Amino acid sequence: MRSLMYVKPHLLEWREVPAPTLHSGTDALVRPIAASTCDLDRRIVDGGTPMPAPFAIGHEAVGEITDVGDEAAAAGLRQGMRVVIPWHLSCGQCATCRAGLPANCTSTPHLAAFGTPLGGRHGGLFDDLVRVPYAAHNLVALPDGVDPATAASCSDNIVDAFGAVAPHLQARPGADVLVVGGPGRALGLFVVMFAAALTTGEVVYLDKDPDGVALAVRLGATRTLCQDIPERMEDRYPLTVDAAADPAGLACALRSTAPGGVCSARSIYFTDVPLPYFDLYSGSVTLVTGLPQVTPHVPKVLDLIAAGAVDPDPVYSQGLDFDDAAEAIPRLRRKAVFVRSTHQNATTTGASGRIAQRSARTRNNIP
Ligand SMILES: [Zn+2]
Ligand SMILES: [Zn+2]
Predict the structure, then answer these.
(1) Do 299 and 151 belong to one domain?
(2) Are residues 246 and 357 in the same domain?
(3) What is the distance in A from the centroid of ligand 1 to the CA of 12?
């Protein structure tokens, strides 16, 4: 079968690899049908991570189940079901999984995931097929009426963005929110989308990229600043979010957090970064960080999408086919969703099918 491999900076290749098979009764085999690039993928492709190449890339997708083990079948999984495939692999039963931290599962290797080599090789979500262990726990059924292409990023970025604001706004109803974004990055835009849906306060978005700022307005930002990241904002906010992937963004978010407030740090930094420690200390600011804990929160996020409370579609570059991925991903400067065109004939009648059909026409004219 075909696997999309990160080979070296700015180079992806399709390679033939053995197709996965069922290893255990809890396994399912899943064929990704709509896959999106995570903000981390951009950094991988640019050579900005310490991950040793080559490896299969891609950890955000909706797929269709093609085969299930006995226990997975007994738990209700069946061939043909459409499912969100969380980026991390977890058992659902260890103490950390039960504590709501599946990305820190102790039954699977540390950082076991699709699309990175950090916790073993589990394939990538642009591959023709992946094996999902503990499938009844890991996979989340896609509700009827939600397009696979819309929900592709529920594997990671969309649910990460929900977690960045939802629990903190529950504790601080109506709070103003500051989001520090970065050029080409989707995470901060998804944070704006959820903040706009979940608070009656201001949703302020900072990004030096005019395209990002325009999208933030579309997603519900009430105030935007298109400029370089300042040392701190003039105002203070009860909830701030760093999604800039720039240590200056984290420092600005921390210094702009109101006394007693929370700074939700959602960027990944692979090295130590300086912290304005005395500002945190003297402002009684809480810094919250950690891996995106996806699985328990996917159903809530899918409900919000299905109900029309949020619409992630504007954030994706669309009209792309899986066949475009190797060539397009190194060139695209923003998040994109790819739809498997061979899939549309079988089962897709919604926007995914239309995207795939459009893609066939526009393949030689990728944005
Ligand atoms: Zn990711
Ligand atoms: Zn576990």
Answers:
(1) yes
(2) no
(3) 17
Domain boundaries, position 272: 159-288
Domain match, 278 and 302 both: no
Taking a 5 Å cut-off on Cβ, the residues next to ion ligand 2 are 90-91, 94, 97, 105, 107
Question: DSSP string spanning 53-95?
Answer: SPEE----EEEEEEEE-HHHHHTT--TT-EEEE-SB---S-SH
Do both 196 and 151 map to the same domain? no
| Cα-to-centroid distance, 319 and ligand 1 (Å) | 21
Contacts of 256 (CB under 8 A, 6+ apart): 178, 232, 233, 235, 236, 237, 240
Each of the 367 residues of the chain gets a pLDDT tens digit; together they read: 999 999 999 999 999 999 999 999 999 999 999 999 999 999 999 999 999 999 999 999 999 999 999 999 999 999 999 999 999 999 999 999 999 999 999 999 999 999 999 999 999 999 999 999 999 999 999 999 999 999 999 999 999 999 999 999 999 999 999 999 999 999 999 999 999 999 999 999 999 999 999 999 999 999 999 999 999 999 999 999 999 999 999 999 999 999 999 999 999 999 999 999 999 999 999 999 999 999 999 999 999 999 999 999 999 998 999 999 999 999 999 999 999 986 443 443 344 444 444 443 333 333 3
Residue 329 and residue 275 share a domain: no
Closest CA to 185 of 332, 58, 10: 332
Distance 292 CA to ligand 1 centre (A): 8
Beta strands 286-288; 257-265: pairing state:
parallel
The verdict on 210 and 328 lying in the same domain is no
- Please give the model's pTM, rounded to 2 decimal places: 0.93
Contact indicator for 155, 61 with CB cutoff of 8 Å? yes
Residue 140 lies in a domain: yes
Report the separation in Å between the CA atom of 86 and the middle of ligand 2, taken as the mean of its atom positions: 14
Q: Report the domain count for the chain.
A: 2
275 and 319: one domain?
Answer: no
